[in-house]
Amino acid sequence: MQDALRPHIRPLHSHHQCPPTIPISLSSPAFFALLANPSSPSFPSSPPQNSIMATAAVTAAVSLPSSKSSALNRTPSVSPAARLQSRKVPAADARKFVSVRAQVTTEAPAKVAKVSKKDDEGVVTNKFKPKDPYTGTCLLNTKITGDDAPGETWHMVFSTEGEIPYREGQSIGVIPDGVDKNGKPHKLRLYSIASSALGDFGDSKTVSLCVKRLVYTNEQGEIVKGVCSNFLCNDPNLSRIIHEHATGYLVLCGDFLSSLFCHYMSGDLKPGADVKITGPVGKEMLMPKDPNATIIMLATGTGIAPFRSFLWKMFFEKHHDYKFNGLAWLFLGVPTSSSLLYKEEFEKMKEKSPDNFRVDYAVSREQTNEKGEKMYIQTRMAEYVDSLLGVFVSSLRSAISCNCSRSL
C-alpha cells in the first residue's frame, strides 16, 4: 500500500486566496498529526480573520483488489478529483475543520478462460451427437455368462474405422433401431467402453461394450424388456461359431482365448449389422497416466467394463511410452460363479504379472465370510483391511512427498 497509495491534499478553487498545495500521504504519521493539531507548522495559517469560509479537498486515487484477487494491484488507477461543497464555519473555528472525501475505485480482474488439462491431453468428447451419429458395423457379439447365470451378459465389438478416438475410461452412446410408443426415434443409451484405445483387435479401429440384457416383470405381471439392451443382445438361442471375426482378437491376446470363443453365441445384433454410435463422452474416470500408480478397482457385474479397458492396456499391450510398473488390484462382485466376467483374461494377466496384478472375487450367492455373511465386495475387502490400509497410507505418503517436492 505505501507509495502506490499516496493521495494528496489539494485546495479547491475559491474566491479567497488559498495556501499552496502540500503533498501529504494519508498513511503517513504527518497526516494524522495534522488532523490532531491543525496549527502544526506543516499546515499553513488560515485566511485572515475576516474570512468567513475555509475550503479544502482531498482526492485519494486508490485502487483496491476485488475479493477474488490474490494480490494487491500495485498500479493505482487515477480517478477524477472529488469536488466538495464548501461549508460555512465560524472564522474562529475555521482551522478546526477539514473536509475530506476519498474516492475509492475497484477494478474487476480480467476473466481468464478455464482450460481443461484433459483438453490439452487430446481427450475428445461428443464428436458424434444424437442428430448426427456415427454408423458402425457389428463385428462380434458374444454371450460371456453361463447358461445357469441369473441374466445374460454379452461382449460386442463395433467397427469405428478410427473415427471415434476414445480413451480408456470413456463411454459411447448407442441409439437402438425403431421408434418409441409415441412414434419418435429411441433415445440413446450410454455404455462404458470395455476395450482399450487400441481396441480388441489392436488396430484402433474398433470399440467394445459389455452389456447385460435387461428383462424384468413389473407389478402388473407383465414382462418388460430394456429397449437398447435387447436391441444389442436379444436372442441367446441363435447359436453361432464366430471364429471368422475373432482372428485379430486371438492374435493380439494369444491362444489362451481360443477355447473361450468356441461356446459363444451370436446375439440379436448379428455381425454385419449397422449400429448408430454417439460420443465418446466422459472425462472423470480416465485411466491414470502414472505407470507407477496403485489402482484399486471395485466392480460389480458389467461395471467391470472400464476396468477391463485399463487392464488390457496395462498387461496385454505394448506401448513405446507406457509400461505399467505399479499395482492394479481388482475386486469383482457377481451373484454366481457362472456370472464371472472375463475371468480367463484376468487369470492370464495374473499369470503374466503376478507382482503387478491382483484380483479377488466376491460371489454373493455362493460364498460367505467367517461370520456366515454373504460375500459382497465390501465383505471381501474387509478381509484385506490391513493390506488396503497399507496401500492407502503408502499412496498418501507418495502424494505428500510429490507435493512437497514441487513446492521446494
TrEMBL record:
EC code: 1.18.1.2
Query: What cofactor is needed?
Result: FAD
Keywords, A to Z, come to: Electron transport, FAD, Flavoprotein, NADP, Oxidoreductase, Photosynthesis, Transit peptide, Transport
Q: Name one GO biological process term.
A: photosynthesis
Q: What class of enzyme is it?
A: oxidoreductase
Positions annotated to bind NADP(+): 192, 212, 302, 334-335, 364-365, 374
According to UniProt, the name of this protein is ferredoxin--NADP(+) reductase
**Annotated organism of origin:** Musa balbisiana
